[in-house]
Amino acid sequence: MDLKSNHSSPVFTDPVHLSKSRLGLPSNIAPYSTAAQPYSSSGLCLQIPRRKVGKLDDVRASGWLDAMKSSSPPRKKLSKDLISESQSDETDAAYLTWMISCPSALNSFHIITTYAKCKSVVLFLDYDGTLSPIVDNPDAAFMSTAMRAAVKKAAKCFPTAIISGRSRDKVYEFVRLSELCYAGSHGMDIMGPLRESEYVGDHPDCIRTTDEQGKEVHLFQPASEFVPMINEVYKSLLDITKNIIGVKVENNKFCVSVHYRNVDEKMWEEVGKHVFDLLKDFSRLQVTHGRKVLEVRPVIDWNKGKAVEFLLESLGLSHRDDILPIYIGDDRTDEDAFKVLRDCNRGFGILVSTVPKETNAFYSLRDPSEVQEFLKSLVRWKNSASSQTEGSTATV
Ligand SMILES: [Mg+2]
Fold first, then answer.
1. Which of 136, 149, 228, 274 stands 20 to 30 A from 322 (CA)?
2. What percent of the chain clears pLDDT 70, i.e. is strictly above it?
3. 184 and 144 within one domain
4. CA dist list (Å): 217 to 45, 46, 159, 209, 315
């Protein structure tokens, strides 16, 4: 199923509480204009209404097998041996046409940095398919040493957070950088800096704890009540899919991922049937689609977009006019974050994709290697801007 053409979230259709446009992007950075929404401080990000129990999501209502297929496009074959020249030309032409509305962040780098000149960049990064390649075995989605170095340098220059569908512990195991904030389970498990804020510190789902280095932090888990239910579903899914070759069921603490990238396509229907049949008994859980993965998640109004708002608040940046949040991700779940940034006209999303997609992102990058190049370019730009400022100060 394609994303809706009106740029709304593919799954969560609840209106997003948006901040007033204080960072209006100039027309040369925004491929198309956005409408600013009224600001409501009371409706920032920490009100988490439970959605109406039993409401079918749009994916479920419109045919889950079609959704499984359309949300799992084949990886683009770059070899001329595997794709004819005319097909290749056609694919490239479609991609180039798409890039008119979603230009390359590398090619547009000078525009981005011109706009970022008087602002503080804040980086939000997805993990799978963004920092690491999509691989057959989800447990082997390691990031390269070069990518880790690029992320580490970026995090020294800019506040940086990783927001992943994986469990927070799992994504930390992959990344192993203490300089970052981590949000796992699609933002339902956020560890961020300690901050005295009525929105963060006083929230019932937020507790003080210590991180791996013994530093005091806030831990925000808006779906904590769902953990026993998620564990039960995880065990059931393990059992009922055990005879399907290639299925991988992953417990991400606040959600369960059912990976089918190694399953014969003829068996996808059976995978989906097992998942959706089981979920009939769990009206407080829903299924969303990622790249060859079904995600079983609590029915709460929380997603990666809300996690971005929460992290900005945690970092003490949400009310600053001089920040430029940039979110880089490849998945449909990242669209919620792209949408938040687009709708509140505050920063922008960058979609990682080798194929044209309907998206709320402003810019695109083809693959993790381009993400790495973009991060390195940002660091070079920041360091050169800082040294120029120091130089001009020294000559005054
Ligand atoms: Mg991803």
1. 149
2. 76
3. yes
4. 19, 17, 15, 5, 11
Output the CA 389–ligand 1 centroid distance in Å: 36
Residues 282 and 134 in one domain: no
CATH of the domain at 341: 3.40.50.1000
Which range, of 91-95, 179-183, 194-198, averages the lowest pLDDT? 194-198
Q: Does one domain contain both 238 and 307?
A: no
What is the C-alpha separation between 299 and 283, in angstroms, rounded? Answer: 8
Q: Has residue 61 been placed in a domain? A: no
306 and 378 share one domain: yes
The residue range of the domain holding 275 is: 226-298
Catalytic residue among 126, 189, 334, 336: 126
pTM above 0.85, yes or no: no
Domain total in the chain: 2
- Span from the CA of 180 to the centroid of ligand 1 (angstroms): 18
Q: Cα of 394 to ligand 1 centre, how many Å?
A: 44
Instruction: Check whether 2 has a pLDDT greater than 80.
Output: no
Rounded average pLDDT over 356-385: 96
Ranges assigned E (strand) in 43-85: none
Protein residues near ligand 1, an ion, with CB under 5 A: 126, 128-129, 330-331
Q: Is 126 a catalytic residue?
A: yes
245 belongs to a structural domain: yes
Distance 329 CA to ligand 1 centre (A): 6
